[in-house]
Each structure stands twice: as C-alpha cells, then as structure tokens.
C-alpha cells in the first residue's frame, strides 16, 4: 500500500479536475434523460481520449519537461495557439465549476449565506491552499478528497440499486437532432477537456521534483489509477441519475442554488433522508476538488507558456495568473449566476470542439524525435490514436453542420 501511495499523485489531481461538471451534472443528467442509453457514449469517449491524456505524463517523465516545452519544439505557433485557446476558455471553465460548487455549498451548509458569498469563500480557500500549501499540500489533500468522493459515490449507487428498476433497460440510444447538442456537451468534458493533458504533464514534473523515484512506469501506473477512477465514478453518477431521476418528470434549473437543491432532494426522496449527507458530501467534494485543481492548473500552464515564449521567468507569474483567473471568474460569475446551464453548455461544447487540436498535437509530439524511442507509442496506441482523432474530428464536424 505504501508503495502504491508513493507512486500516486498527479493521477489523482487529474481525477480531481476531471470528476466535476462532467460527472455530477452531465453524467447525472444523461442518466436522468436517457436512462442507461448513453453508456456507449461515456465508454467510447473515454477509450478514444485515453491515449491523448496518457501522452501528458508519459512525455513529461520520459523527457523531464512538460508538454508545453514540447509544443514549443514543434513550433512557437503551436504554443501561441495553446495560449489563445487556454485564455479563451479558462475563465468560462473556472466559472462553470465554481458556480456549481457554490450552489452545492449553499444547499449543504445553509442558504443563510448567498451563492455569491459562497463563491468568494470557496475561491479564497482555494487561493490560500494553493499559494501557501503549494503542490505538495495539493498532492496530499487530493488523495483524501478522492477517497471520500469514491466511497460516498459507491455507497449512494449501491443503495440506489436496491430500488425497483422495471422501467429501465440497458438498450443504447442515439440522441435525435434536438438532443445532439447535449451529447456533444456530455462528451466534451467526459472524462475531462483534453487540455488537462497539459496540466497533468506539469503536475508530473512537480511530482518528480518531490519524489525522484517517480519514473515513467510509475507515472503511467498513477495515470491509470486516476483514469480508471474517473470512468467508474462516471458510470456511478450516470447510474444514480438513471435509477433516481429517469422518467421522474423533473427538469433541472439553470440556477446553481436551485439545481443543487433539486439534485440532493431528488436523491434523498429516492434513497431516504439518511442519504442527504452522503449525497451532499459526494457532490460538494466532487465540485470542490475540480474548483481547486482547475484554479491551480490554468495559472500554472499560462505562467509556463508565457515564460517559454518570452524566455523570461517571472518570479510571481503563477500568483499573477491565479489573481487574473479569480478576477475574470468573479466577473463572469456575477453576469451568469442565473444561467448556469448555458454557461456549462458553452464551456463543454468549446472543450469538445478544441479537442482535435490537443489530440493531434499530443500525438505528433509523442511520436516525434523529441520523445525517447522506447517511450513512443506502440502499434496498438498508434491505431487507437488515429481512431480517436477521427472520432473527435468527425463528431465536431457533425455538430457544426447541424447547428
């Protein structure tokens, strides 16, 4: 066990960033609207995204540098495109996850404090954790959070399975034209946006600084633990949505606090009042972990990217970008506080449409001379990568042509 725990770190940070809106909101809604009909989409997108996420820690530990360093070697224009895409999406992503977290905090701890106030409190706590605790504290904290999240989700799913499920089947469905937008949004953040591969490479380098024995095999083991966790919990939340909400006649509100109350109340009605705390803890832990890890990752990536472009290392670059992200998030939050559903849809669709860029660049880098030959992809991973790129491009074109 001690061996395993020492080898685990960035993979759980990946899981913490991934298991958020995609699971709590999108997976639950998929189960509520389609029963078990979209299990195919959940599994397929996880399979096809797998190699591109894996290339992050693989490249980082094999070369001792982040994917961002590799992007620069492919050409400065690649790094510039990354910066533009990140700057264009990071505020929306951070706001989407923070608004859900604040809504859950309001529902769980009391609405005597407004959602706006909870947003300020949550961002402040995350800021203090990241600035004072830095990576080492984040690494230890995430292990604790993911354990709580996994146990509470499995317990809730186990009790939900005891309910009658006569109206449910495992027949798979393909959404009609009106529902296709949700399918794209669902897959956009399932298990996470592909740019998290960059974040993972940054965390992997930090982990190696803290643990010199963190080699490529360790990083791949760590990644697989985190990735498997996201798949299991994705299926768990979809199952909860299917068992508790399918054909209930309920529709989700676009307001964060109302949505959170609906979510917890619907579970409680089905599972019993005892489950309020379990569901509440699972939901809040899910979103807090995502808020914390995204607030760390985007500033870390932007600081590193700007440093690579300008060849100037800013002493407080990370701190500068955290403050910029918190400021931008707060501004967007107050404009979209009643439009949580729209905000989430925008963020998730944008993530899916930018996925082909990250897939192609990550694949090109890991297959290039910049990666040691022994750590380049095997034939199986090459084939899976080609299929994954075709899958992401195909669905993106399909979505854009059906708008």
Report on the structure:
By secondary structure, the chain is an all-alpha fold. The chain has a single domain, classed as Hydantoin permease (Orthogonal Bundle), CATH 1.10.4160. Helices cover 79% and strands 0% of the residues. The protein is built from 15 helices and no strands. Helix 6 (76-109) crosses helix 7 and helix 6 packs across helix 11 (256-271). The longest helix has 46 residues, at 115-160.
What is this structure, in a nutshell?
79% of the residues lie in helices and 0% in strands. The chain is mostly helical and 403 residues long. The protein is globular and about 55 Å long.
Question: What's the arrangement of secondary structure elements?
Answer:
Layout: H1 2-7, H2 10-18, H3 21-34, H4 39-63, H5 67-74, H6 76-109, H7 115-160, H8 180-188, H9 196-210, H10 216-245, H11 256-271, H12 275-310, H13 317-336, H14 340-366, H15 379-401
Helix pairs in contact: 2-7, 2-9, 2-10, 2-12, 3-8, 3-10, 4-9, 4-10, 4-14, 4-15, 5-6, 6-7, 6-11, 6-12, 6-13, 6-14, 7-10, 7-11, 7-12, 7-13, 8-14, 9-12, 11-12, 12-13, 14-15
């Amino acid at each position: 066990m001690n061996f395993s725990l020492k080898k685990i770190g960035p993979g759980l940070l990946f899981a913490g960033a991934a298991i958020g809106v995609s699971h709590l909101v999108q997976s639950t809604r998929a189960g509520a609207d389609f029963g078990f009909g979209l299990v195919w989409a959940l599994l397929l997108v996880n399979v096809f995204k797998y190699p591109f996420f894996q290339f992050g820690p693989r490249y980082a530990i094999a070369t001792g540098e982040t994917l961002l360093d590799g992007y620069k070697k492919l050409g400065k224009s690649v790094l510039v495109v990354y910066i533009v895409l990140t700057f264009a999406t990071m505020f929306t992503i951070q706001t989407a996850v923070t608004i859900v977290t604040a809504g859950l905090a309001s529902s769980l701890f009391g609405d005597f404090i407004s959602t706006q106030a909870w947003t300020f409190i949550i961002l402040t706590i995350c800021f203090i954790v990241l600035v004072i605790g830095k990576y080492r504290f984040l690494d230890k904290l995430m292990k604790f959070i993911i354990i709580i999240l996994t146990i509470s989700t499995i317990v809730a799913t186990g009790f939900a399975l005891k309910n009658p499920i006569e109206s449910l089947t495992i027949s798979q469905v393909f959404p009609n034209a009106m529902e296709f937008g949700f399918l794209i949004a669902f897959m956009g953040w399932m298990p996470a946006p592909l740019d998290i591969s960059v974040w993972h490479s940054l965390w992997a380098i930090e982990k190696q600084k803290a643990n010199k024995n963190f080699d490529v095999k360790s990083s791949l083991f760590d990644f697989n633990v985190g990735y498997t966790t996201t798949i299991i919990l994705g299926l768990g939340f979809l199952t909860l949505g299917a068992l508790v909400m399918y054909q209930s006649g309920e529709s989700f509100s676009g307001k964060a606090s109302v949505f959170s109350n609906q979510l917890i109340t619907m579970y409680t009605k089905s599972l019993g009042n005892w489950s309020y705390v379990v569901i509440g803890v699972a939901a809040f832990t899910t979103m807090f972990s995502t808020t914390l890890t995204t607030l760390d990752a985007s500033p870390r990536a932007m600081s590193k990217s700007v440093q690579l472009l300008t060849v100037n290392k800013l002493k407080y670059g990370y701190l500068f970008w955290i403050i910029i992200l918190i400021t931008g998030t707060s501004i967007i939050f107050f404009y979209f506080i009643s439009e949580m559903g729209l905000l989430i849809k925008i963020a998730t669709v944008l993530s899916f449409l930018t996925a082909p860029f990250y897939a192609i660049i990550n694949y090109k880098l890991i297959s290039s001379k910049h990666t040691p030959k022994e750590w380049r992809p095997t034939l199986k991973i090459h084939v899976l990568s080609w299929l994954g790129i075709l899958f992401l491009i195909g669905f993106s074109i399909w979505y854009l042509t059906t708008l």
